[in-house]
Amino acid sequence: MAGATEAPEAPSNQVNRVGLQKKDYAGSKSTLCIGCGHDLITARLIDAAFDLSLKPENVVKLSGIGCSSKTPAYFMSRSFSFNSVHGRMPSVATGASLANRHLKIIGVSGDGDTANIGIGQFVHVMRRNLDMIYIVENNGVYGLTKGQFSATADKGSKQKYGNVNFMAPIDLCALAVELGCNFVARLFAGNTKMMRQALQAALAFKGTAMLDIISPCVTFNNHAGSTKSFPYVKEHETALQDIGFVPAYDPTYHEMAAGEEREIKLGDGSKMTLKALGNDYNPTDRVGALKMLAESREQQKLLTGIIYVAESQPTFPEMLNMVDQPLATLPQSVTRPGKEVLEEVMNELA
Amino acid sequence: MSTAATAEAIGTIVNDFSIHVATANGSGSQTSNMVLLRALFQMGIPVSGKNLFPSNIQGLPTWFTIRASKDGWIARKQDSDVIVCMNPETADEDVATARKGAVLIYDDSLRQQEKRPDCIHYPVPFKKLIAECCPDLKLRKLVINMLYVGVCAELFGIDMHELKVALNKQLAGKQKAIDINLPALEHGAKWVRENLPKKDPFKVQHMDANKGKIIIEGNAASALGLMFGGVTVVTWYPITPSSSLCEYLDEYLNRFRLDKDGKRTFAVVQAEDEIAAAGMLAGAGWAGARCFTSTSGPGISLMNEIIGLGYFAEIPFVICDVARTGPSTGLPTRTMQGDIYSLMYASHGDTKHIVIIPSEPKEAFEFAQEALDIAEEFQTPVFLMLDLDLGMNYWMSDRFAYPSKPIHRGKVLTKEQLQELGGKWGRYQDVDGDGIAYRTIPGTEHPNAAYFTRGTGHTPQATYSEKPEHWKSNMDRLAKKFETAKKRVPKPVISGHGSKVGLLFCGTTTEAIREAVHELEHKHRVKVDLCRVRAFPFTTEVEEFIEKHERTYVVEINRDGQLRMALSGELPRLAPKLRSILHYDGMPLTAATVVAQFREQEGAWGKGTPE
Questions:
Q1: Do the two domains B13-203 and B220-398 of this chain adopt the same fold?
Q2: Which one of B168, B272, B274, B440 makes the best mutation probe of the A interface by having the most chain A beta carbons within 10 Å?
Q3: Where are the domains of chain B?
Q4: I want to staple B287 with a disulfide (CB 3.0 to 4.6 A). Which of A99, A166, B141, B231 is the partner?
């Protein structure tokens, strides 16, 4: 199918900084339809994790239910994974993050899983700032139940068998910005270069990064009249920026001339650079971001890139003033108060 | 005036009566009620305090019943002996429904004498008295309730010193509040002393029955159990009558579970709803935390999908259900054993869950710890079943004992163990033959530690499978695990003398049944055997008890006999031996109800007494 422009592969025997090869980040074989946008995202996640030298043991992959939510099986088999319940991945992620605050969470969801059944949990998880990337593999339809509209389908968009969506779409990027998410991007699964860079930056970001990735469904939503087909998105995509990722360990890094590029610190010593492409869009301006999203919707433009980014804020475990050691492995000497405590309480109640 | 014909002479019924106080909610009456309750407790008299309150914040009627019983009966009593009418709105009804010979205390403007010549009347000029002892006009509405405490103190001989100690404790030593309340307490007593001749038979005297006892609500007791049980992640969504459990827990944890730098060794999170609260448990339990939430029936309904996931994906977490009266919003501030069946078989498909059922605070403290252990030992959701009566009412209890067993985390493979195994293991493989497989915790640094958790069909190696043989063998293993649990969960408490008839019950019906059995034995010369079930799955002792008895009455607080239904389903050949004694009006069970229904059915059974 269209859009499958692969980046040049790293040599298969290349080893990253934690001594792993690309194949150590692989998963089991995808069972999605051939040409599915989701598989492109999966491939870029493997690239990004390898490039960043993520330790698979420190990563957990969580998902809800749907085609998108099956994808955690297709990458990073050495990482724990939990394919949970429809629309409830955000709460499962919250619990995992409380049990072990050092886990990096890759949450994968779809537009139905997030914008329909899961909208409540999406809204609340955006407020918590877990250390997590929240990927919405957004194709505007339900795949596993064969082509019903989701709440991100554009008004006027046509279903495979002719029905037209008459309701306004939910803009997940606008919601995320509004709710205080500090890293919000809209990407296109077919834009390999931007995805690879943005995924690395998002994974390096401390806090929640929400990525709304337009990922066409080749089986149920790739026809004329769909606004989420490969041809439509390719034709309508306008990239906001050229995204660069500068890892903390990279000795070739140097400061750019002011005005030429925008530099964003990601909280782990690495940086993201953003070079505006023929616009003066400022992705660090929250109000401006919301305005831009509203305008682009009116003009039926598909703008991709970093919608909003701010410096890292305290994560949920930090806000809760939790100990550094994972709660999961605290010993009894810490979790069971002494006899004198019970004695004190009993005396109060006597 | 009162022509109250009571059989008993003045001051002859000692330490054996109940006081029913009617107030408006939000009027500060809780402090007064607790001072009264505590003072009696401190005098060494067995007491209980039951709050009957509306689903409202201010202005609606609320009642508090204190029962003092030298014989230690602490269940609700059918009829109250003393009624204090502090709420003019309900005074007429409170007086109308009083039993013959009851003592009525009310504001003298209410003029109730003619209505109930068969009762003992104590009109008190509350409004005049409060004006005399509380100069601040705004505070009078609240402090007026302390007047009736003084009135009762003088009428029934409650020790003023103990009242002052109780007041100090209840107001946490806040001098300003004490200075406002104490004059009312003393003024009420003084007025009675100077103006009101005693006409009733009720009296209290110091006893020594409360050594080593405390007064506590079941929710607070459970919270303490969870803290000492090593809970680390607590999620919750507010719902009566469970909210105070997590609020107590939050309070205790913040007091006693900070590390030396003041950092929390726990997380307490208020979720956006019960679905999220349960979802967080699924994530936290999966990632290795000892985790917990509390809720009530409507919350259980919402959590059902995740409970099924927890059962099937084998994730440990504990849910406490403090049951209230349903269905729907029902009577949110009244009690019911309404979720017995829906907990045991929660969610869709083939599910069965471990349910642990304490009957009083000490057991709630111990079973909360047990629930955390059992959840991790069996890698499954475990329910702790309370009800409003246990959760929110004040119970006398033995002091809690410090846990004697170490915390048990179940079958968790560490990095070192994985190395010894050469990385070869299967998440859903029954290695030990008990149905319980080994698990690993996310973050374990071994290349073979990870596995894929899913609610879909899976193999012993945790890979996806739709194969019939994989599905069936996995379901059979889960059934085996449940069978193993029979040997682990708390056994029933059985007592008796080899009677042909048994009473079987669980939870808060215990006290009423204890009292009923005493009455049956001493008044009606009928002996029955008792089986208090403390867990699901039903252990072999439960089976043997029903087997041994000609007929067994299952006593429970719901309309449909949910416990009996479960027993009938699990032990179908014994189902014909089961009868029901049911109570379902929102109020706690009384001994009188048990005795009446038992005698009626035994009579109708045509066998006379079972002896």
A1: no
A2: B272
A3: 13-203, 220-398, 411-490, 493-604
A4: A99
d(CA B255, CA B245): 15
List of chain B residues whose C-beta atoms are within 8 Å of the C-beta of residue A330: 230, 232, 265
| Position B234 confidence tier, pLDDT thresholds 50, 70, 90 | very high
> Do B189 and B159 form a contact (C-beta atoms < 8 A)?
no
Q: Is B438 on the interface with A (CB under 8 A)?
A: no
Residue of A nearest to B255 (CA): A341
pLDDT tier for residue A7 given thresholds of 50, 70 and 90: very low
- B36 or A248, greater pLDDT: B36
**Does residue A3 carry a pLDDT above 60?**
no
Q: Which of A32, A88, A106 to mutate to test the interface with B (most CBs of B within 10 A)?
A: A88
Strand order in the sheet with A262-265: A241-246, A271-276, A262-265
- Residues B368, B369, B373, B374, CA torsion sign: negative
Q: What is A22-319's CATH topology?
A: Rossmann fold (3.40.50)
Spatial contact of B290 and B234, defined as CB atoms under 8 Å apart: no
Buried b (16+ CB within 10 A) or exposed e, A210-231: bbbbbbbbbbbbbeeebbbbbe
Q: Best residue in B171, B215, B228, B314 to probe A by mutation, most A CBs within 10 Å?
A: B228
- The mean pLDDT of A319-330, rounded to a whole number, is 98
Q: Using an 8 Å CB-CB cutoff, list chain A residues near B309.
A: 84-85
Q: Which pLDDT score, from 0 to 100, does residue A5 have?
A: 41
Test mutation, A91, A119, A339, chain B, max B CBs within 10 A: A91
**Sign of the C-alpha dihedral computed for residues B32, B38, B41 and B46 taken in this order:** positive
Q: What is the mean pLDDT of chain A?
A: 93
Tell me the chain B residues in contact with residue A27 when contact means C-beta distances shorter than 8 Å.
none
pLDDT value, residue A2: 38
Q: Tell me, what's the pLDDT at B113? A: 87
Preceding peptide of A11 cis, ω within 30°: no
Residues of B in contact with A25 (CB under 8 A): none
Euclidean distance between CA atoms B191 and B333, whole angstroms: 36
Encode pLDDT of A103-112 as tens digits: 999 999 999 9
Give the ipTM. Answer: 0.95
Question: Rounded to a whole number, what is the distance in Å from the CA of B21 to chain A's nearest CA?
Answer: 23
Mean pLDDT of chain B: 95
Question: Around Cβ B334, how many Cβ atoms within 10 Å?
Answer: 22
- Angstroms from B28 CA to nearest CA on chain A: 21
Residue A255 has pLDDT above 90, yes or no: no
Query: Residues of A with CB below 8 A from B171's CB?
Result: none
Please tell me the predicted confidence (pLDDT) of residue B2.
41
pLDDT of residue A11: 67
Quickly state the pLDDT bin for A1 (edges 50, 70, 90): very low
Q: What pLDDT shows up at residue B57? A: 81
- Helix or strand (DSSP H, E) at B516: helix B510-523
What chain A residue is nearest to B293 in terms of C-alpha separation?
A95
pLDDT at B4: 45
Choose among A100, A124, A324: nearest Cβ to B443: A100
Q: Please confirm whether the linkage preceding B460 is cis (ω < 30° from 0).
A: no
Helix (H, G, I), strand (E, B) or coil at B354: strand
In this structure, which topology does domain B220-398 adopt according to CATH? Rossmann fold (3.40.50)
Q: Do A78 and B450 touch (CB under 8 A)?
A: yes
B165 reaches A (C-beta below 8 A): no
Pick the CATH number of B13-203 from 2.40.10.480, 3.40.50.1100, 3.40.50.2300, 3.40.920.10: 3.40.920.10
The CATH number of B493-604 is 3.40.50.920
Kindly state the percentage of chain A with pLDDT values over 90: 86
Does the pTM exceed 0.90?
yes
